[in-house]
Amino acid sequence: MKRFPFLSGVVAATAVIFAIPAYNAGAQMMGTPNLTGTYNIQATGDTLLVGTVRLTQQGSTVVGSGRTKSGGTLQFSGNLTNNKLDGTWRAPNNETGWLTINFQQNGRGFSGEWGYHGRKANGNIVGTRRM
Asked: How far apart (Å, rounded) are the C-alpha atoms in residues 13 and 68?
């Protein structure tokens, strides 16, 4: 009879040890947290955006908007895959372009580059989530 309490303790401990890696693997598969929120930004090149941007995420689609230096609203949208957003933007004067943004795993910030369609990068953009 004294062997069974010891054996059941060993079985329970073994189950916990093997369950921890499975739990961590599941957490890593969850991917990027929801990116919906407001981000303080800094952009280089032609001033694409100033101040803050507001992002909204539904599934892998992210849309956003921010103020331009001239006071208009720039809109952008893209598809998120493995923390990387590939998308397009449209300025109030109907100029358009592309953007590639890499989000931090914790969703608290991003960095990337942007440009006009058919051209290489015109500038960089860095954002930090407002809490």
From this structure: 58
